[in-house]
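Question:
Now give any protein.
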Amino acid sequence: MQNSEALALTAVLLAAAGELTQRINDGVLARGFEARPAYGFAFTRLAPDGATVTELGAHLGVTKQAASQLVEELARKGYVERRPHPEDARARLIVLTERGWECTRAAEEAAAEAVRAWVAVLGEGQVHLLRDQLSRIAPNGRIRPAW
């Protein structure tokens, strides 16, 4: 593959990821939740069992201070709560509240809508093939923002 072809492929993959992120966030907003894409990236780490601020920061690729600020914002909006850590008395476990889980379900619905648009363009078989091929390339890829 020529450099120009590789660059074109990376550009279209990044564009698809950006559009998907925006469609999901727009769908979450349309369902009555105050959100921004960073919330969804955080929620993927907090579900299902929670995480410490340090773990969340590592997942997002940000400092502990930035993760703390995000957790404070999420807590103010009722999406997360702090609980005692079951294994470390010094740490707090950040977990989704019921409102956080409702927001997560809204994001799942919005993601399904976005993928249905892809199915309308490519067909269901091609979308399944795309998913399978991308899974081979990044089988354990972390879902996090590229700040």
Summary: The longest strand covers residues 80-84. The helical segments are 3-30, 37-46, 53-60, 64-76, 98-122, 124-137.
